[in-house]
Design brief:
Layout: H1 3-23, H2 25-34, H3 37-59
Helix pairs in contact: 1-2, 1-3, 2-3
């Protein structure tokens, strides 16, 4: 992946995860404020899923 594609994919990832965190605000607040394992696991898996999807699109 070229540097340009990597940068574009990173920006796309940030936009997507910010939107997801805003839509799932309760889970984000629980994970951020209380350190709840379930909520933080959910957010990490969500971020991984989005990153994998964007990476596969960038490589295609």
């Amino acid at each position: 992946m070229s540097a340009t594609n990597a940068s574009r994919a990173y920006r796309k990832f940030k936009r997507a995860t910010n939107g997801l965190l805003k839509r799932n605000g309760a889970a984000y607040l629980v994970a951020g404020k209380r350190g709840d394992d379930e909520a933080s696991k959910f957010l990490r898996s969500l971020a991984r899923t989005v990153a994998d999807q964007i990476r596969s699109e960038a490589l295609a």
